[in-house]
Amino acid sequence: AAGRPGADRFELAITRVEGGAGSAALFSLAPGARLECLGPNGLFVREDRHRDVPAVYVATGTGIAPLRAMIQEELLRAESSPQVLVFGCRTEADLLYRDELEALARTQPRFRYVPTLSRADERWQGRTGYVQSHLTALHAELGPAHHYVCGLTKMIDDVRRTLKESIGLDRRFVHTERYD
Predict the structure, then answer these.
(1) Stretch 1-19: mean pLDDT, rounded?
(2) Nearest one of 140, 73, 133 to 108, comparing CA atoms
(3) Are 144 and 168 in contact (CB under 8 A)?
(4) What is the rounded distance in angstroms from the CA atom of residue 96 to the CA atom of residue 23?
(5) What is the band of 78 on the pLDDT scale with cuts at 50, 70, 90?
(6) 13-32: pLDDT as tens digits
(7) Residues in CB range of 51: below 8 A, 6 or more apart
(8) Do the beta carbons of residue 146 and residue 139 sit within 8 Å?
(9) Cβ(152)–Cβ(60) under 8 Å?
(10) What distance, in Å, lies between the first and last C-alpha atoms of the chain?
(11) Is 54 in contact with 142 (CB distance < 8 Å)?
(12) Coil/strand/helix, residue 48
């Protein structure tokens, strides 16, 4: 759907999990179905007190969903701190919201979109490898940044290890949300 979700609508990015009660129920809904929901809830948010330094958003797969909302909200603000999204997928076809994110990168000077593919084919001209392999160079460029990381546990653990051991980033700068 185009545009920014509001009070009466929201968007979901869902991976169908065989035998998964939640994804099976959601995939069975017709487009435009009405749902009763509670929320938003949780602690995985961008706090005002963190806006004085750059933000690096790190996602794989459908982990992009909450980060996309954070980025949309952030880019409405007048602040000037850099915002960088490192989005890892297996193949180019897996890059959710690609057109939207590329357009934001073209039109928002403080936003950069960094897709990286772990199973890129020979036509791919962008970055390759896992998301954590690109964080050291970003840190050298941006300095200390708050990192918002969403995805599977293994990726989050690898990113945390990279930020701590290779970069020496204080854990107060790392905010995570796991979905497995």
Answers:
(1) 68
(2) 73
(3) no
(4) 17
(5) confident
(6) 888 888 887 888 888 888 88
(7) 74, 77, 79, 81
(8) no
(9) yes
(10) 26
(11) yes
(12) helix
